[in-house]
């Protein structure tokens, strides 16, 4: 399989597909992001399911791009015989999920080769395939997939092969549609009409946001589009990434399933979407949250499935080799059962931002916030697994305590600012001050002038870079300047930031990992808030250069091999890009709970 950065994303707001630069759809879960994959070649080889459509014998494309602000992908090959373009997209879902591929002859006459290998249940199940009127129908158990195309097709070794010549001006459509095998066949989709509708949808969505200008406009917009593609429209939930088990170290076992809704990742995504001008998504997510966490606040989970299901049992798919032999491939995620105290802070911070940005407070939403805060009052001083979800022993993570401070701060401020919001503000202010003192007493190493990962330990942690952004200390506080220096000195590889040193902090896992991209964006924010604007811009520009040719980032980067690592595209990396980019764009610092955008922000980055 290709490198992680070889993949582009298609999406219909309920699931996503990854298309390689060789024109192969190597990852697709149907009907939802977290359903079993019918194309799982990404995690094994083409026999685990894929759909290739490219000039016969061709390698990687000559170029590819998304059509303006959309998720419609155009991939071009210039060959000796001529030039051909494949237009790939998933129409935003109305009834059944479709992938549409239109082969367009640009010049000359090009011999095309298509190979559709469907393998349901993550590569395990071979369907029965036969012709059904004008369609090819593949059925196994609950799944049915239909392919409609005027191009010739034939069965070959459990795949459907299509060989044809495309001439300049030709447009040859392929429409692949999924439906439950026990339901009637979905109405056929007209490929050209679907293309116009899909472009219209994404352009309309892009225009709804703030009108961005300046050198970072395209990068920020692409990240916002990517974050939108990771949202699940029927419920308002947001997945952390579109994939499972892309490794944090090639050949290693740090392979996790990210196709779920983390309260942390989702609220950060929400902050980025709000900053980009998208309040509807914030509203949908708040509704999702109210349903997902309903019940006893003591039972709050740090993550749920897209519809709020709580049981996300982790298991291994032993029939898949894993990406470049990085085994195991996991589905489900045992982190769902962990205690991660930061999520209260992130959630209450995100809801405060939504409120301050104009999303009307509702009684239900405020009641939930009060219940969450009351529960946090009783547990903030416990040891936890921290935001990095360590599987080693629980600790007093400094970042978790800082985020508990955030929760108390936002709740107290809400009551003070809004007459209609009631709660024990005095008590929450007192708790806020207690936590502040606790962090400074136990989470700061005065001898080294740096905050540390957990109380009483010396290890560093990049999550502490968010301290000024959440308003715990000023950006130019000497303790923050010391932390920035310590992280730059001891926690970077090739100038990019690691989450923590595996050798110094027991995370309970074997192996190593790359640099965590969101942490480098947090360094951009910290530098900016410390007044080191030039350094912030330099690092941000460097991070932008790590995006692939279509603007996507996975979770991590391997500075030695110069390649992306981890699940892709990852919301964590993209929301961090958006907030850092907008902050630089605005040319001023802002707090996580303050709307970043308001009239009067200059349109150009001051350089
Ligand atoms: O490093 C071990 C943990 O890795 C995953 O967690 C990471 O991804 C989450 C989703 O983006 C993110 O919220 C978390 O901060 C990251 O550490 C994995 O999900 C965990 O199961 C695993 O223990």
From TrEMBL:
Associated pathway: Glycan degradation; trehalose degradation; D-glucose from alpha,alpha-trehalose: step 1/1
InterPro entries: 6-hairpin_glycosidase_sf, 6hp_glycosidase-like_sf, GH15-like, Trehalase-like_N
Cofactor section: phosphate
EC numbers for this chain: 3.2.1.28
GO biological process, one term: trehalose catabolic process
Family annotation (Pfam families): Glyco_hydro_15, TREH_N
Annotated coiled-coil segments of the chain: none
GO molecular function: alpha,alpha-trehalase activity
UniProt domain Trehalase-like N-terminal: residue ranges: 3-159
Reaction catalysis annotation: alpha,alpha-trehalose + H2O = alpha-D-glucose + beta-D-glucose
GH15-like domain: residues covered: 214-580
Similarity comment: Belongs to the glycosyl hydrolase 15 family.
Protein name per its UniProtKB record: Trehalase
Organism whose genome encodes this protein: Flexivirga oryzae
């Amino acid at each position: 399989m290709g490198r992680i950065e070889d993949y582009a994303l298609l999406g219909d707001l309920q699931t996503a597909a990854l298309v390689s630069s060789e024109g192969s759809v190597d990852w697709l879960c149907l009907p939802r992001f977290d359903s079993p994959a019918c194309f799982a070649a990404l995690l094994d080889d083409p026999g685990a399911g894929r759909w290739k459509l490219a000039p016969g014998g061709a390698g990687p494309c000559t170029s590819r791009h998304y059509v303006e602000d959309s998720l419609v992908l155009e991939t071009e090959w210039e060959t000796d015989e001529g030039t051909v373009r494949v237009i790939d997209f998933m129409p935003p879902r109305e009834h059944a999920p479709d992938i549409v591929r239109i082969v367009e002859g640009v010049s000359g006459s090009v011999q095309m080769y298509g190979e559709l290998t469907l393998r349901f249940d993550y590569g395990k199940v071979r369907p029965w395939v036969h012709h059904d009127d004008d369609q090819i129908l593949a059925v196994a158990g609950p799944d049915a997939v239909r392919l409609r195309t005027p191009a010739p097709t034939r069965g070959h070794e459990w795949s459907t092969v299509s060989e044809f010549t495309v001439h300049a001006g030709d447009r040859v459509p392929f429409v692949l549609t999924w439906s439950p095998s026990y339901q009637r066949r979905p109405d056929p989709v007209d490929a050209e009409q679907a293309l116009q509708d899909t472009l219209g949808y994404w352009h309309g969505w892009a225009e709804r946001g703030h009108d961005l200008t300046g050198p970072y406009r395209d990068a920020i917009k692409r990240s916002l589009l990517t974050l939108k593609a990771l949202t699940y429209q029927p419920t308002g939930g947001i997945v952390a990434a579109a994939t499972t088990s892309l490794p944090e170290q090639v050949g290693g076992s740090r392979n996790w399933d990210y196709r779920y809704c983390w309260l942390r990742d989702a609220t950060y995504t929400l902050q980025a979407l709000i900053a980009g001008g998208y309040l509807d998504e914030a509203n949908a997510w708040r509704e999702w949250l109210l349903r997902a966490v309903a019940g006893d606040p003591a039972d709050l989970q740090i993550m749920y499935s897209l519809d709020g299901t709580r049981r996300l049992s982790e298991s291994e798919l032993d029939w898949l080799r894993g990406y470049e032999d990085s085994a195991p491939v996991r589905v489900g995620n045992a982190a769902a059962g962990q205690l991660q105290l930061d999520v209260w802070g992130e959630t209450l911070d995100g809801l405060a931002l939504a409120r301050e940005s104009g999303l009307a407070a509702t009684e239900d939403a405020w009641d939930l916030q009060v219940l969450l805060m009351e529960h946090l009052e009783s547990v903030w001083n416990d040891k936890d697994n921290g935001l990095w979800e360590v599987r080693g022993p629980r600790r007093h993570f400094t970042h978790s305590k800082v985020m508990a401070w955030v929760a108390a701060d936002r709740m107290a401020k809400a009551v003070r600012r809004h007459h209609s919001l009631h709660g024990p503000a005095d008590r929450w202010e007192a708790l806020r001050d207690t936590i502040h003192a606790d962090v400074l007493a136990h989470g700061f190493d005065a001898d080294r002038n740096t905050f540390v990962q957990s109380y009483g330990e010396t290890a560093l942690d990049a999550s502490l870079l968010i301290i000024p952004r959440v308003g715990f200390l000023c950006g130019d506080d000497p303790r923050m300047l010391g932390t920035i220096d310590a992280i730059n000195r001891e926690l970077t590889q090739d100038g990019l930031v690691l989450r923590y040193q595996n050798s110094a902090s027991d995370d309970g896992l074997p192996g190593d990992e790359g640099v965590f991209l969101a942490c480098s964006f947090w360094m951009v924010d910290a530098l900016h808030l410390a007044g080191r604007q030039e350094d912030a811009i330099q690092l941000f520009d460097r991070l932008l250069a790590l995006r692939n040719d279509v603007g996507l980032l996975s979770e991590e980067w391997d500075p030695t091999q110069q390649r992306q690592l981890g699940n892709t595209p990852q919301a964590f990396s993209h929301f961090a890009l958006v907030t850092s980019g907008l902050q630089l764009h605005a040319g001023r610092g802002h707090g996580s709970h303050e709307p970043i955008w308001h009239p009067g922000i200059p349109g150009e980055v001051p350089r």
